[in-house]
Design goal:
238 residues, 9% helix, mainly beta, Jelly Rolls, 5-stranded mixed β-sheet, 5-stranded antiparallel β-sheet, single chain
Length: 238
């Protein structure tokens, strides 16, 4: 067998060289063309040595909370695909971890030693941001934004990267309800006397084509909170 990918080699004085050569061709073909789906429904994933040797691209499926995938110490280039994930993915060899962001695809190099892992290239998901400005004091439960999506978009847990401002500060805590198809999925919050919002979302918010995003003012309007502007930071899906 070969050193790194355990590719079949022809034995000296073999009577069936064509069998070994055909096996070798199939093993090499798989090593540079095959995909392996990694299902994260039940937790973190460990890739077996032969799985790493016989696949080129490792595709994350059912990745909705942050997980890790551990690879064996095999010398090779390989691809980890988190383009369909809605959470981050940690890629591990030994004590080395490199994290792929939501929607990111990474090309890695391992040299076969215990802790060696290098990210040689990556492709990030395209950003997709939505913003608006509301003039004056919103009425009770007044819609501040209604937006229907034409493509898949994901907003990360905690709405990381989003921004919200009040040009006139609120008297009391002011919560704007963020809704997906009429159901609450997050909050944009201004503290009393605050002008910079914080965001709350327990899990990633995934919108498909045809889904509607709504931002709804508090049911009891604050007397002074006025002139709201905000941008929600997301990434395009497939």
């Amino acid at each position: 067998m070969s050193n790194n990918l355990t590719i079949t080699q022809v034995a000296e004085a073999s009577n069936n060289k064509e069998t070994a050569i055909n096996d070798q061709a199939g093993e090499l073909d798989a090593a540079f063309t095959e995909d392996l789906d990694m299902d994260f429904t039940s937790g973190n994933v460990t890739v077996l040595t032969l799985e790493m040797q016989r696949n080129m691209r490792f595709v994350a499926t059912n990745l909705s909370v942050a997980r890790t995938v551990t690879f064996p110490a095999v010398a090779r280039y390989f691809i980890v695909d988190n383009s369909g994930g809605t959470a981050t993915l940690g890629v591990i060899i030994g004590s080395t971890t490199i994290t792929l962001a939501i929607g990111e695809v990474g090309t890695f190099k391992a040299d076969g030693s215990t802790n060696h892992l290098v990210l040689t290239a990556n492709s990030s998901a395209a950003p997709f941001d939505i913003g608006s400005f509301f003039v004056g004091v919103p009425g009770s439960s007044e819609p501040l934004l209604r937006f229907v999506f034409t493509r898949a978009v994901t907003f990360p847990s905690g709405l990381t990267g989003s921004e919200g401002l009040l040009l006139v500060a609120a008297t009391a805590q002011t919560d704007v309800d963020i809704q997906k198809n009429g159901s609450s999925v997050g909050t944009m919050r201004w503290a009393a006397s605050g002008t910079v919002a914080t965001f709350i979302a327990a899990s990633p918010i995934t919108m498909a084509a045809g889904d509607e995003l709504r931002l709804i003012a508090p049911s009891s309007a604050d007397a002074t909170a006025a002139d709201l502007l905000f941008t929600l930071a997301g990434t395009r899906g497939t």
